[in-house]
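Course assignment 3, question 2. Fill in each field.
Student: A.L.
Task: Predict the tertiary structure for the chain below.
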Amino acid sequence: MFRFLHSSDLHIGKPFGTLPEDLRGRLREARHTVLDRLAAQARAGHAGTILLAGDCFDTETPSPTILRQALAAMAGHAPLRWVILPGNHDSLQADELWSAARAALPDNVLLATEPAPITLAPGVMLLPAPCTTRRPGRDLTDWMDRAETAEGALRIGLAHGAIQSFSEDGAGLDILAPDRAVRAGLDYLALGDWHGQMPVNARSWYSGAPEPDRFKHEGPGRALLVTLTAPGVLPDVVPVETGLFDWRILPLDLLSGDDAAGTFARHLPSGSGRRQTLLQVRASGRLRPQARAGLEAAVAAVAPEFAYVRFDTEALMTDCQSEDLDAIDRMGALRQAADQLLAESRDESRSDDARQTARDALVRLFSYCEAMPS
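Answer field:
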């Protein structure tokens, strides 16, 4: 039997430049400390090896501090053994990165930088496919079909890249054969690139990112605890949680007349984990202006309790009628402005963006008026 932990896409050093400055540091630290959480799950599962299937680092030029601190963290978890595969973000083109890594390499860290068999244990062979460039444009796992190993040995593939027209970077390159495990007689193929955990088949899995970094994938950060009992026997694959932050999408499909603020409140995550939650509220459908203004106020009211809140209203239309404008004013300058905005929002001669701008401005006017003392 051979048991190991499969992870990938740590992206240590990711800057998170589009997020608030105080949050960026917390997210960067979570990416570094995920090494400790991976090690804890490996020990809890009695696994002696951790396979990192590419993109351990976010860039081909991580700072010396980022590199050395990551290697030191791995060294601190000896005798656990770490195997690092170059991915598309930290490919073999990064000569300086991999030279510096070799110069400071701890005894319990192995760099899988060549497409050649590596002995992990007696009768256990690793077949790595390191990324040669950011977009190799060919199937780097092809050599595994011809890789010779001792009869009766377990064969584990380690690769990073897209399968069947999807990839995390949106390149859409069909570069990895989905049946590579069968073709190459692999007992397990450990894959990286897709940040959501997903099986390709019974012997091929994307581990997903152990610490989420975007709203694209549902669920917490995870790794995979894999047990191989004998050649040819299907692997036992168990997801284990490793993430510190929760990137959660809250969809709101709304209709005119709905109590949007109430619907939002009912579907909010519980208060205990809000500080560690990044929330994207995706509102769609139609709302009357007062209901929309109320929803915006409800989102703004709870936002400080979360690590981050993004309110996405791109798919939400404002269903405004003339009688709704009475809530702003029945006459005077404010009413004239509201009438003008309503007319612009319905003017088919204007562009979609211009009409949306008018609708947004009208909602903002409702918000201002509701906040004004009566």
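Instructor remarks: The chain has two domains: 2-241, 246-371. Helices lie at 21-44, 64-75, 95-103, 180-183, 260-266, 289-302, 333-346, 352-371.
Grade: pending
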